[in-house]
Amino acid sequence: MDNCCEQNVCKVRTKADTVKIVLILAAAALVSAAIVFFSILFGLFLFALFGIGTTALGIWLTGNFDIEYEYILVNNEMDIDKIIGKRKRKRLITIDISKASEFEKYPTDSEVERDVTVHASSGLAKDAAYLVTEHSDYGKVMVIFNPNETMREAMERELPRALRSANRNG
């Protein structure tokens, strides 16, 4: 029987993200107003369309701060995708759960040895976990993510036996 599970996690918007969004919209509005003002002043009404385009560009850029991560587990392979503004999807990594060497709560006090770190979490540490596994292209990969209980149970079935028993006891 196939082991399938899917989960979407929205990244929490930080104060820095909010400040960047406000600055982008303010700059777009200022540039747009300047373009419209000078186009009316010099009688170049067609140039005013660039002002409208500048506003549209600012609004489009702020959509890049809406980030979701999608975890798709099929048997022992987990795909992690990043969805930006609900318009662009990018595959971050595909990992083999059966090759995992660590699967624990994040953050941890101990230093984890790894070659690459993939951050695919909501930004909230309270329910975050990390998984360390071997990858054919990247070496030892540490994935930081927020699996819900259903995803954890599906992953548990594919983890190596030593990690399954350690997670049940810990």
Describe this structure in words.
The chain is α+β, with helices and mostly antiparallel strands. The chain has one domain (1-170). Helices cover 35% and strands 34% of the residues. The chain has 4 helices and 8 strands. The protein has helices spanning 15-41, 48-62, 149-156, 161-169, and strands at 4-10, 67-74, 77-84, 88-96, 100-105, 116-120, 129-135, 139-145. The strands form 2 sheets. The protein has a 4-stranded antiparallel β-sheet with strand order 1-2-3-4, with helices on one face. A 4-stranded mixed β-sheet has the order 5-7-8-6, with no helix packed on it. A hairpin with a 3-residue loop joins strand 3 (77-84) and strand 4. Helix 1 (15-41) packs antiparallel against helix 2.
What would you call the structural class? alpha+beta
Major pleated sheet: 4 strands, antiparallel
Overall average residue pLDDT = 88
Give the fraction of residues assigned to helices: 25-40%
